[in-house]
Specification:
Blueprint lengths: L2 H25 L4 E3 L2 E3 L4 E3 L5 E2 L7 H31 L3 H4 L2 H22 L7 H26 L21
Antiparallel strand pairs: 1-2, 2-3, 3-4
Helix pairs in contact: 1-2, 1-5, 2-4, 2-5, 4-5
Keywords: Membrane, Transmembrane, Transmembrane helix
C-alpha cells in the first residue's frame, strides 16, 4: 500500500474518535444540571419528580430545533466528510478536488461548537454533564482530524504530477 493511502487510512481511524464521541454525547441524557433540573438535547427533566417539564426557560421550539440540528448535523458532517475524503482520495487524482471534503470536516466541528454555545446560552451557570463534555471533545477532535486529513490529502503526489514550479521555463518574446 502506498504511503498517502496509509496516511488516509490513519486519518479514518482518527476520524472514528469524534464520530464516536459525538454519537455517545448525543444519546446520553445528562447534559447539564442546574437547580435540580436536568437538561439534555431533547427534553428537560426535573430531578426530584422525574417528570418531563416544558422548555419554558430559553428553549423555544425554533431555538430548540436549531440546537438539535446543529449538534446532529455536526456529527453527520464529520462522518460524511471522512467518507468523502476516502472516496475522493482513491478515485480522484486532482489534488484540489481531494480537498473538497475538508469543507465538511471544518463545518462539522464548527456546528457542534455553535450548538453548544447556543445550548449554554439557554442554561447558565456551572455544572456541565458528561454529554456536554463529550460534545466539546468531539468538536475539538473533529478539528484535529480535519487538519490532519487536509495535510495528508494536500501532500499526496500522483506519478504524473512530479513537475515542480521551479522547472517551468518562461519564454519572453519582444515585439517591435
Amino acid at each position: 500500500m502506498q504511503l498517502p493511502r496509509k496516511l488516509v487510512l490513519a486519518g479514518v481511524i482518527l476520524g472514528i474518535i469524534p464520530i464516536a464521541l459525538g454519537i455517545v454525547g448525543l444519546v446520553t441524557k445528562h447534559w447539564h444540571r442546574y437547580n435540580n433540573v436536568q437538561y439534555n438535547l431533547f427534553d428537560v427533566n426535573n430531578a426530584n419528580a422525574g417528570d418531563t417539564i416544558d422548555f419554558g426557560l430559553c428553549f423555544k421550539p425554533p431555538k430548540q430545533s436549531a440546537i438539535q440540528g446543529l449538534e446532529i448535523g455536526g456529527v453527520a458532517a464529520i462522518g460524511v466528510g471522512i467518507i468523502a475524503t476516502v472516496v475522493l482520495h482513491t478515485i480522484v487524482k486532482n489534488r484540489w478536488l481531494r480537498l473538497l471534503p475538508q469543507i465538511l470536516l471544518i463545518l462539522g466541528p464548527s456546528a457542534i461548537v455553535i450548538g453548544l454555545l447556543l445550548f449554554q446560552e439557554c442554561v447558565t451557570e456551572a455544572g456541565f454533564g458528561w454529554s456536554f463534555i463529550l460534545m466539546i471533545a468531539a468538536g475539538i477532535s473533529g478539528y484535529i482530524v480535519a487538519i490532519y486529513l487536509a495535510v495528508v490529502t494536500a501532500c499526496g503526489n500522483h506519478p504524473y504530477h512530479n513537475r515542480t514550479s521551479s522547472t517551468i521555463i518562461v519564454r519572453e518574446s519582444v515585439r517591435f
